[in-house]
Amino acid sequence: MTGSQATPSFRLAYVPGVTPTKWVRIWNERLPDIPLTLVAVSAAEAFDVLRGAGADAGFVRLPVDRADLSAIPLYTETTVVVVPKDHVIAAVEEVSAEDLADETVLHPLDDTLDWERPPGQPAFERPATTADAVELVAAGIGLLVVPQSLARLHHRKDLTYRPVTGTPESRIALSWPEERTTDMVEDFIGIVRGRTVNSSRGRAQTPAKTKAEPKAKRPDASAARRKPAAGKPAAKNARAGSGGAKSGAAKRGKPRRRS
């Protein structure tokens, strides 16, 4: 068959720690004829994937280069420290960056927090990935400060985590190439922003109902009877007219009584 078009599809990239399940489910409910494909990417390569058309849009970690990419900030994550379950920090609800001053804190090469200076004492060597750093924490080599979603992603039964104050926070955003803001991208933006299926910004919306025009009033029959015809004098009340005629005839025809 010639001249056939490829079936439209939407490719959604996402960085580690982001769970796009909720938005994917809504997409499948609203646009069942357009398949959505998930593309897992690292935080470092996410923007190159978007620029290279490897995905139509993606959940990324800020900051975003606004020169050619659009972004909608979605939420800010809590920063936590990952520690062994038998560590002293596991006994408290929250710690500060200063509380980690004497601890060896691992700083992986794929770290997603924008540090001016990481807390604690640096390890002899930086782990290549966050997953490698988690393994080192389990081995008692040091501690790890990460966004909470990454602590959950790399959860182990022998580890736990606690919130840390006084540290950078990671923000998640939806991003896409500005020059490729397609209808499908607009549809997904609407889903992420919580718009309903009938939103004025969405494509899949029901036509607005036109306001019914008021029905013309039927002429008042009694009023029509009361209104004289053009060029004719108004008719006298039949009852009054006949009564008047009889009265006149009676007066003319009945003799007067003598006093």
Which features does this protein show?
259 residues; alpha/beta; single chain; 6-stranded mixed sheet
Descriptive overview:
The structure is a single chain. 23% of the residues are buried. This protein is an alpha/beta fold and 259 residues long. The longest helix is centred in the last third of the chain and has 16 residues, at 238-253. It has helices spanning 21-30, 46-51, 130-138, 148-153, 183-192, 221-226, 238-253; strands at residues 10-14, 36-40, 57-61, 69-76, 79-84, 95-96, 104-106, 121-122, 143-147, 159-165, 171-177.
Proportion of residues in helical segments:
10-25%
Rg over alpha carbons: 40 Å
Roughly how many Å apart are the termini?
122 Å
What do the pLDDT scores average to? Answer: 84
Major β-sheet, in short? 6 strands, mixed
- For the biggest β-sheet, the strand order reads 6-10-5-9-7-8
- Globally, the shape reads elongated
DSSP, total strands: 11
- Which secondary-structure class do the elements indicate? alpha/beta
Q: How much β-strand is present in the residues?
A: 15-25%
Contiguous uncertain segments of 5+ residues: 204-213, 234-251
The succession of helices and strands, N to C, reads: EHEHEEEEEEHEHEEHHH
Question: In DSSP terms, counting alpha (H) and pi (I) runs of 4 or more, how many helices?
Answer: 7
